[in-house]
Amino acid sequence: MNRTRLHDLLSRIQSGALDIDHALDLLKTLPFEDLGFARVDHHRTLRKGFPEVILGQGKTVRQITDIAQRLLAHGQPALITRLDEQQAQEVRVTLPALRYYPDGRIGAVGEPLVPPVGQGTILVVSAGTADLPVAEEAAVTAELMGNQVERLYDVGVAGLHRLLGSVDKLYTATVLVVVAGMEGALPSVVAGLVDRPVIAVPTSIGYGASFNGLAALLAMLNSCAAGITVVNIDNGFGAAAAATLINRLSCPPKSNPLA
Question: Which of 118, 187, 226, 238 has its CA 20 to 30 A from that of 36?
Fold first, then answer.
């Protein structure tokens, strides 16, 4: 259930085209739908502007498809993160319309949201090619959440001229998601150059003393550059969700969706 469908439902009740009992049947799963193994939150689109997202990691293919089918039945797109290629092939048996983005390990069914007129751009920046899976998780998620997204990859501090050669992209973005492993220095450099929000994403890429991303995480948390927000290790999805909420401020809603 999204804002448009709810508005249509209420309009039909008001005009007498739909009786109250039938409307109650349609609304009975609005808050959530209990599938036994999961409670699908159909109210999330009204609260957050995007439906519940399915974490593929740790779920069976049957669980993934059942949740996705219930979202689709309520007119909502289904976004599946951390979906490996084998899972994607098996999910597609039940959901043949599944679109799979292998670099970001993301599956999607249903139409992505359309970016509102006047909304800014999210720029996803990665330090190295090895960081690309996390960067693509962020970029694809942001696109499916209805954002204009640009990418700037392999511009880490080991060759700073690569970043400085694209400063025009840094200056024109509304919010930046900066992905880096190793010592995690890139977000500090970017945040020192721009007056826009920077969301830093540490990755688990690096040699022994990187401690699977802990070194990058601590470096980002201790950055001396102002305006950096840090998400968890390898959490491209979380960065995209935060960037989406920030980006919407450049094109605010006309009214409170819960009012």
Answer: 238
pTM: 0.81
Helix axes 132-144, 236-248, angle to 10 degrees: 40
Q: What are phi and psi of 87, to 5 degrees?
A: -60, -45
Chain segment 90-122, per-residue pLDDT in tens: 999 999 999 999 999 999 998 777 676 668 899
CA 87 to chain centre: 20
The 3 state secondary structure assigned to the chain is CCHHHHHHHHHHHHHCCCCHHHHHHHHCCCCCEECCCCEECCCHHHHHCCCCCEECCCCCHHHHHHHHHHHHHCCCCEEEECCCHHHHHHHHHHCCCCEEECCCCEEEECCCCCCCCCCCEEEEEECCHHHHHHHHHHHHHHHHCCCEEEEECCCCHHHHHHHHCCHHHHHHCCEEEEEECCCCCHHHHHHCCCCCCEEEEECCCCCHHHHHHHHHHHHHHCCCCCCEEECCCCCHHHHHHHHHHHHHCCCCCCCCCCC
pLDDT tens column, 224-233: 998 899 999 9
